[in-house]
Amino acid sequence: MPSDHPTLARLAEAAGGSVVGDGGVTIRDVTHDSRLAGPGVLFVAVRGLSVDGHRYVPDAVSAGAAAVCVETDPPSRVPAIVVPDTRMALGPLAAEAHGHPSERLALIGVTGTNGKTTVTHLIEAMARRAGTPVAVAGTVGARIAGRPLAMAHTTPEASDFQRLLAEMVHAGVEVAAVEVSSHAMALGRVQATRFRVVAFTNLSQDHLDFHGTMEDYYRAKARLFAADFAERAVIWADDPSGLRLAGEVGIPVTTVGASSGDVRITDPELRFGGSSFTLVTADGSVRMQIPLAGWINIANAAIAAVCAATVGIDWDSIAAGAAAAPAVPGRFEIVETSRDCTIVVDYAHTPDGITAMVTAARGLAPGREVIVVVGAGGDRDRAKRRSMGAAAAQADVAVLTSDNPRSEDPESILDEVEAGASGGGAVVIRQPDRRLAIRAALDRAGAGDVVLVLGKGHEQGQQFSDRTVAFDDRLVAREEAEGVAS
Questions:
Q1: pLDDT of 50
Q2: pLDDT 10s digits, 125-148
Q3: Which strands form 195-200's sheet, in the order they lie side by side?
Q4: What is the pTM of this model?
Q5: Which residues have a Cβ under 8 Å from the Cβ of 149 and sit 6 or more positions away?
């Protein structure tokens, strides 16, 4: 094994733990998955929400793990690190094992309820235009210098995250933009990571099944904006939580907004084919064009631009990269068909996200009917379902349907969403079959009308209690619009 791999004793010091057994054994990788254990690998027994990794210590040892990290009862067959909290130790252990890769990148972390994916993809386009080797990682997967990778979580578990960053470094990446979820902060997935800049997009009701309250949700995201994680911050100041955050953080902040901010948006022009606006900075003004519709994407582009400039990308490349950025999968994605209505697929799955989409559609197609297809996911934040229904009822027609029901009864979920939509002024259509719901929306749409298919965005499957079936809103909408569906 190469001599530059750290010893177990060095990893223990990094994680604040103590060594039992031979601290001189060298470690080349760290994992929380016993199936990936083997020679040279440290297995960390993480206590999960439903499964305790300590149960799998014998499996990891049998697989040849060089050592294990536990909270209690270290095994006698291999060396061990003992720590008070294995979950919080996972990141520091992995970062040490991989040589602290975040410190060798201009790493940009983006958090917020909505917009993370779009912001990171725009940063990628800006860096690529500048000729800077770049990587991106988040909800729709990862790309390292253009090479795609699948990911299970918006922000991977700490051991996988540090390995991913190390792979970026190995590939010659200089700038990386990654989404940082509130779950990631609460579960320690970015512990021991250093960000050159962190960005905040907005905060609205989501994930309260996990966080409990909006204050706890805010606090989870706010933790990222601390000196032990980041050097600088970029914050959207037109969001009340962003304005609050800008006043609380202890690192240098650049605020961005239309009504307030160090960097201001002026002269916006919106259309379905794209948008343009001027960014007024301390160093002058830059006219920006993006192939994305809606005010929310102007905000996302402005945040991305300031992040890119903060890590040294020149403004000419920022503007040219934004103008040439490819469509972000499932984010205000227009489905091209022969129909004379406009069909848009978007990942919006929060009350504020739905409201923003309806508002954008009304602004882009004044006087035309706005038709929304939306549902709420099962086994997730139930408290937002009525509000989602009320947001959908801001459209002219709200077609309520299933999202990913998971283990819940789809009709019961619809009852809650429909209760919020009732009395909202929209025509409400209830259709639990998602394909038939899209068909009903298209049957209603006339020339110039806008059909918004919301909630699943880039997803290509629909999850039920006993199965996952292939379902891509973009494909289904195109099939139904063209009358080619089986």
A1: 82
A2: 999 999 999 999 999 899 999 899
A3: 147-149, 141-144, 134-138, 175-179, 106-111, 195-200, 230-236, 253-257, 263-271, 274-281, 284-290
A4: 0.91
A5: 137, 141, 142, 143, 164
Fold of the CATH domain 101-323: UDP-N-acetylmuramoyl-L-alanine:D-glutamate ligase (3.40.1190)
Q: What is the mean pLDDT of residues 449-477?
A: 96
pLDDT tens digits for 184-222?
988 999 999 999 999 999 998 666 666 579 899 899 999
Rounded Cα distance, 466 and 472, in Å: 19
pLDDT at 204: 82
How does strand 80-82 pair with strand 18-20? antiparallel
Nearest to 7 by CA among 29, 19, 25, 21: 25
Counting every residue written for the chain, the total comes to 486
Class of domain 8-97: alpha beta
Around Cβ 359, how many Cβ atoms within 10 Å? Answer: 15
Q: How confident is the model at residue 456 (pLDDT cuts 50, 70, 90)?
A: very high
pLDDT digits (tens, 9 = 90+) for 274-285: 999 999 999 999
Q: What ranges make up the beta strands (E) of 152-306? A: 175-179, 195-200, 230-236, 253-257, 263-271, 274-281, 284-290
- In this prediction, residue 208 carries a pLDDT of 60
Class in CATH terms, 333-482: alpha beta
Cβ neighbours of residue 72 closer than 8 Å, sequence gap 6 or more: 54, 82
**In angstroms, rounded to a whole number, what is the distance separating the alpha carbons of residues 482 and 486?**
11
Annotated domain spans of the chain? 8-97, 101-323, 333-482
Q: What angle do CA 386, 391, 395 make, to 5 degrees?
A: 135
Helical segments of 223-348, H only? 240-248, 295-310, 315-323
| DSSP, res 328 | P
Cα–Cα distance measured from residue 236 to residue 111, given in angstroms and rounded to the nearest whole number? 11
Q: Are strands 397-400 and 427-430 parallel, antiparallel or unpaired?
A: parallel
**143: its two tokens:** 């790309």
Query: For the chain, how far is it from start to end, CA to CA, in angstroms?
Result: 57
- Residue 429 to residues 72, 247, 261, 397, 441: CA-CA distances in angstroms? 56, 44, 42, 8, 9
Task: Give the count of beta carbons closer than 10 Å to the beta carbon of residue 284.
Answer: 8
Tokens of 484: 């080619």
**Confidence check: pLDDT of 486 > 60:** no
Counting residues of the chain whose pLDDT is more than 90, the rounded percentage is 87
**Cβ atoms within 10 A of the Cβ of 381, count?**
19
